[in-house]
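Reopening: ABC transporter ATP-binding protein still failing for me.
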Amino acid sequence: MVFNDARVSWRHASIGWNGRAWVFQDQGSTNGTYAQGRRVQQVEVGPGSVVHLGNATDGPRLTFAAARPDVYSAPTAMAPGIAAQGQAGMAPPRTPQPAGQPPHQQPPQPHVPQQAQGPYQPQRQPPHPGQPQPAGAPGAWQGGAAFAPGQPGAPAGPGPQHPPAAQPPYGQPQPGLQYPGPGGSRGPTMIRNLTTRVTRIGRALDNDHVVSDLQVSRYHAEFRATADGRYEIVDLGSHNGTYVNGQPIQRHLLRPDDIVGVGHSTFRLVGDQLEEFVDTGAVSFSARRLTVKVGGGQKILNNVSFGVPEKSLIGVIGPSGSGKSTLLRALTGYRPADEGEVLYDNRNLYKQFAELRQRIGLVPQDDILHPQLTVRTALRYAAKLRFPGDTETAERNRRVEEVLGELKLDIHAGKRITSLSGGQRKRVSVALELLTKPSLIFLDEPTSGLDPGMDRDVMQLLRALADDGRTVLVVTHSVAELALCDRLLVMAPGGSVAYFGPPNEALEFFGYETWADVFQAFETYRDHDWGGRWHGSAHYQRYAADIDAAPPQAMPVQPPSMVRPHKPQSWGSQLWTLVRRYGSVIASDRGFIALMLVLPIILGVVSVVIPAEFGLSQPPLTKQGKVQFNQAAGTILLVLVIGMCFSGAANSVRELIKERVIYERERATGLSRSAYLMSKVIVLGLITAFQGVIICAIGFAPREMPAEGLIVENTPAIEMTVSMVALGFTSMMFGLIISALVKTAEKTMPLLVLFAIVQVVFTGVLFQVYDKPGLEQVAWLMPSRWAVAAEGTTARLATLMAPWDKQNPGNTDPLWEATRGQWLFDVGVLFGMGVLCGVIVIRLLRRHEPEVMRR
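Support: Ran it again with your exact input. Result attached.
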């Protein structure tokens, strides 16, 4: 039974016999199931029972009545002509190739499909063996229901339905009228007469118009009448923003053709009537003449056009170098095409990315969740970041449980993601994207590295997602389960389209028996014009010619570079959530905790083994009254400083690269770049400071310390520890630069070693670096130089160590001058270098986010 009401979930509820009574069971719906005014998870029903879906008062109403078993016993007759129609579109079997004949003597001619003439009608592929049939029917009734459960033991089946005729159902237009909506010719979900000067919309129940969408703030926006009879839309400080024609606004005077976007709903004013169009997944999606060029004008994506039927599964295959990944980034807006356009429900994705990004889900090849966390914990943190700040914890957690149940992950909710199989981890990544109920989901190589059984499991999951009302596009190398797809896009070398159409006609089109033969032909005939072959085929005329023939859109919208998407959470809220999540990840990583504790202990102990009779203090005069030098003091400080440099950088050198895929996806959903970096700085900074205290405690405890400090006179060890912590902070920031620069985690270790070695050279302890033009200036860029200087001012290193210039012993290192001002300057430079490193990291992070969001 299907209800065309925005408040009813795709799989809202079910009814079944439990051996004693009929039970109406909520299936994790968003807006709930209600009996006697209360929200229920399950309720026993009988004659006279009433249940509301989506709202306790005016939601679709189901009234239960007793009925005789024979009402449900009649078999459902197949509509005449269905079998014939199902067979008419099938291509005849291809004549097998004679044995011994090489398959690639020349590229075969494209096969001409039967019934190539006439308009294209999307046709669902037959289900894979073992694949469950989708619920509902294309011609399902859209109104309320009077459901009569049969007697116990009676066979269950679809009985006759009799919708009331006197009143049009909730949210439906008047019968016989057409309302061309923002997405084309579909009618509006709701029509409301604006009878007051101010109409407030939002998620809270006391709004004038309630939008039951967690992407919408409690009090989101207002339609306000002006003195001249027009209306303006005013954003009320919403978290995800209010959009007019895809552009974020604070206040906007509406014109007749303007489209207002709020969450998954779009609104349009027609006179004094407000029409709402809810994005329930029935959206069109098409790519028109997409071309991507790299250096020298080389095309890596060449004139790609295709249209995706709504609520369908699309497979994309092709050999290496055919532009599949480039196409995926172009389709999602991560790397917009240089030429062409991507249309989401006839709206330009690139120009309206700020709004439409909320309706698109992307599952990269790598997992987009922290594997150290449990499934439920990871999803709850993700929900906290993606949903508006005024969403209550219970609302978010309820949505998490709905998704866990939908993807059959509830039994694994308490397990760590690392303990799951490859297919289960991919389900978790899909679950993350389903939190916000996207209508369009892209997946990049979801079956990579999986065995054939898991491959089938993942593809059947994607088939079920499409059957539930979403459009799914999957890039894959696997060809074993292509029959589950509704359409297949085959990319050829050079980034052109070689085929687009039903998967069961693809091999016939290429003229080969197996996909191995097709891919071998791609490799053998790399210079062949596969795109031209496609454009000259009857399949192109049937499945893609109308997309190419459509004129490009000309919309006077704000340039993408000026669009600043809203963030669902405030900066402070995002920072707090990120800090808590990062802390949970570290607390769950026992290996990291052990290393964090052991490393500073080892580094501190290493400094203790250095023999030093006088520690870090000034030796007494000799019996002859001569000054003694303490060269060992410089060596001790050198070891401690280099150890702190290594420890600080090692803490952070892998932290950005290992989360790069997670950051890219979360940034596209509204994550603040600076909040993300600051969460790393806070957590890693605390860890590094803790390590600095351990290193100094072990290194200073057995040593004789200077007589007094410059800032903390009675306890110079505290003063020197502060200098060491400042060095650790700066080194940690240098590690983040390395992590943001590299492309793979394997490259971080060589750069970490290089960083530590360079610090040894420029400390100023091994040889003189001051008064050396060029060398001195390079040393200024090294945190170890300033750390030794800060420690040296407290320890009076200029008098502890023998002068570099024996002829002029008074020519000492100016950075080691034992004054308060010099110590403050040295430590200030360290912290200043750390802040500068943070600015550099912010700039580097821009490279790892959608181009339309870079600024």
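Residues 571-853 form one domain. If you still see a failure, please send the error message rather than a screenshot.
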